[in-house]
Amino acid sequence: MMQSTTSTAARAILERARAAAAERRVPVSTLHLLGATLDVAGEVGRRLRAHGVRIVDVRQALRAHPEPEAAFARVEPRARRIAQAQGSAEVTEGHLLAAALSDPESAATAMLAALRHDPSAIAAELVQPAAAPARAALAARTSSAIAQGQRGNPPVTPLMSRARLSVDARRVAESPAPSRAPSPRRRARRPARRAARLAPRGSPPARPRCCSRC
C-alpha cells in the first residue's frame, strides 16, 4: 500500500499547534490544532470559518474541554489512514482536522458539538476537493427543486431578450388599433354636414334641427 507523506502545510500546522501549547505550558491538544488552522490563511481554515467556528471559541474551549493526552497522538496515524483510503499521496491539513474531529474523545469534537455543529459532517467536508462542497450544495438544491416541482427557469441571455422584444413589437404592430366611438356632439353634427354637401350652391346653409318640431 502506498505510504502517504505529510505535506509542508500540514507539518507547519502541527508545529504551530505544539508551539501554542508550549507557550501556555499545557499539553498539546486537538484544540491547539484547530486554533492553528484558523490562524493561518488556507482553504481548511476558510471552510471552518464558513461554519461559524471562531478562534475565540477555541480559546474558551481550552478551559472547558480537557482531553486525554493520547488524543493528539492519534491524530497523525488516523490522518494518514484517511489519506491512504482516499488515494492521496500527501497528508494535508484537511486530513489532520478530519482525524481530530472523527475522534469522539477529542476536545475539538466536544467543542463543535457544544456549538451545535456536526463534527462528522465537517470532517467529511474538510477532506473534499476545493470545488466539491459547491458542487454538492448545487446538486442538493437541484434535487430539492426537482422533487418539489420547482425547477428553475433557464438563464435569459441577451440574444433571448432581443428575440422576445422583437416578438412583442411584432404582436403590437399586427394587433388592430382600438376603435373609438364618436361622441354625442359629433353624431349630432353629421346630419347637418351631410345636408350642407347635398344643398345646391348659393343656398343658405341648412340649420341643424334640434328636434322634430323645428
**Shape estimate:** rod-shaped
Spans of at least 5 consecutive residues with low confidence: 138-157
Helix fraction, binned, reads 55-70%
Separation of the first and last Cα atoms: 120 Å
Mean pLDDT, to the nearest integer, reads 77
Structural class: mainly alpha
Number of DSSP-assigned strands: 2
Spatial arrangement of strands, main beta sheet: 1-2
Percentage beta strand: under 5%
Topology pattern, helix = H, strand = E: EHHHHHHEHHHHHH
- Major sheet, described briefly? 2 strands, parallel
Compute the number of helices. 12
Our Rg estimate from Cα atoms comes to 40 Å
Write the layout of secondary structure elements.
Elements: E1 5-6, H1 8-24, H2 30-39, H3 43-50, H4 55-64, H5 70-73, H6 75-86, E2 90-91, H7 93-101, H8 107-114, H9 119-126, H10 132-147, H11 158-174, H12 184-198
Q: Any overview of this molecule?
A:
By secondary structure, the chain is mainly α. The chain is 63% helix and 2% strand. The chain contains twelve helices and two strands. A two-stranded parallel ribbon has the order 1-2. The radius of gyration is 40 Å and the shape is rod-shaped.
